[in-house]
Amino acid sequence: MSLVAGSYERFIWGYKLKSRKHPHSLTLTPLFSFPSHLSTIKTVAVAGSAAVSAGNDDTIKIYDLSSSSEIGSFHHSSSITSLSFFSPPSLSSFPRNLLAADAEGSLSIYDADPFVHLKTLKVHKKAVNSLTVHPSGKLALTVGHDDCLAMVNLVRGRRSFYCKLSKEASIVQFDETGEKFFMVVDEKVSVHESEDAKLIVELDNRKRVLCAAPGASGILFTGGEDRNITAWDTGSGKVAYSIEDAHAARVKGIVVLSKNSGGSEEEDPYIVASASSDGVIRVWDVRMANKGKPTPLAEANTKSRLTCLAGSSIKSLKRPRLEMLNADENRGAAAVES
Fold this sequence. Notes:
Layout: E1 2-7, E2 11-19, E3 26-35, E4 41-47, E5 50-55, E6 59-64, E7 69-75, E8 80-86, E9 97-102, E10 106-112, E11 115-122, E12 128-133, E13 139-144, E14 148-153, E15 158-164, E16 171-174, E17 180-185, E18 188-193, E19 199-204, E20 209-214, E21 219-224, E22 229-233, E23 238-243, E24 251-256, E25 271-276, E26 280-285, E27 298-301, E28 306-312, H1 327-332
């Protein structure tokens, strides 16, 4: 399991989460930390052994977590605002495609093996705030500074839907199944059906939501200015459980690292990582939230102003032998017609 965080101070931070002999004892082992960009890092993404970061310097940096090194970069025409990987189920330990949204309202699509630019298309009239890729890899959703929601057909490489929202959304995110998606507008989170965008329920947080991550069984984790980690039941619209005062500052990123809650409490804790604007990264077994305020399983202090967090629950960082996989299956879902 690995975590990558970006900061205002241009630094990228990489950690590997290791288990100790005690079942509830983990440690965050540093992989790397260095000023990888010329200005603030706005977004990071991780899939298996691959990681990327981007921000105000118009550059996407690529990292190999298995070797703890930077392996390349892409120069872009404007600031990158959001990054997202797509990994087919048969290639879960390494991504198939990378999507990058920017401040000019464009969406760029890259092949991730090797990293090659495929296509850039105009999606919004203003900056893109957030993007999310459907688990099938066939479509993506974006929200932008133009107060609009857009759908992109990744098979054909074109925008297929575009509509005006009542207010600007800062985050859009599919759930694990792809049957629902979430949009964040200030302190409210709306849950929609993916098929027709029908509103299912609206979640009302006390303060502004700055980050969100879907979990298993219809759970959505949110964090933000209230400094809590809140788990919402998206079926009922109620709070399932919450870690109060999880951080001393705003929560800027949440990552669900362990999605198998069927194991025993000792062997398979439900692991969620969070990062705050004061530089602290914490790892939690969120099931302990109902037993009083839980103690973090692991913690690291970067002593920097963190802006984003991403991670991978893949335990092995070794890249698979790609030649053994079905090439048509890997390339079909997210291929882009030239």
